[in-house]
TrEMBL record:
Keywords: Bromodomain, Metal-binding, Zinc, Zinc-finger
Listed PANTHER family: NUCLEAR BODY PROTEIN SP140 (PTHR46386), NUCLEAR BODY PROTEIN SP140-LIKE PROTEIN (PTHR46386:SF1)
Any one Pfam family match given in the protein's UniProt record, by short name: Bromodomain
CDD domains recorded: PHD_TIF1_like
Domain SAND span(s) in chain numbering: 1-61
Protein name listed in UniProt: Nuclear body protein SP140-like protein
Amino acid sequence: MLHKDRFASGLCGKSIRTDQRWMTPVEFVTVGSALEDPSWENDIQWDGKPLSLLIERKILVIHSLLCKCNLCSSTAKDRHDQDNDDDCFICRSQGSLICCDECPRSFHQRCHLPNVDDAMLGDKLPWVCTFCVLRTSQLWRYPSQQTYQEALTCQISDHLLECQYLLLCLYNADKDHIIVADPCINVRNYSSVIKTPIWLDRVVEKLQQNLYQTVQHFVSDVLLIFTNCATFNRVRLYYCSIQCEDSGQHFLKQILELC
Ligand SMILES: [Zn+2]
Ligand SMILES: [Zn+2]
Ligand SMILES: [Zn+2]
């Protein structure tokens, strides 16, 4: 994915985001191409057109060699600042964001789950997001013989990480913020149709207040969000097509398959 406002030249501006990281066009073409001597202008395409054409049409503008902007700066800090997203991965707005040291995601401290306290952040301390914690821990944390039914009966404290991960996935997938806030406030006639309203912010609140005992309680509330949506809209919202990372994680995959 090429981001126009991060583009400065082949060597400056980490303007291309892959799932793993942000790269300059030269880095991208060097890593991704099997060609002997790849050219970023001709070999990287955007919407079927080589970048050289976008530059010719002034859709992409090459910064001058003397440019003093942050993208063109060669200091380690300015280059490091380009390693993460400019928007919060959860709410998609900007502001003061914390950056994961293992992936390109950024978050507001209150948007990430669990919420991040200032005490957990220090200049020297690495900080790793829930997506990366789950990815690195799933190999050893859960024996694969645990079935979905068994997982449901577990104490929520044993699966807190997965629950937080699922919620983050749902926030990120809900691009139109349909299931985030209390629908009774903004949607006309909602409470007359839906007797048991529930929304993502409320599930987070209940999780933080330890109101769920087993995974089953939590899963029921998450599923109720979708059932309510379907009932109110009379159509199914296909959130189950959510592009869930780490799809091998059986526990979450099966929750999503139920939606
Ligand atoms: Zn510049
Ligand atoms: Zn946010
Ligand atoms: Zn991460």
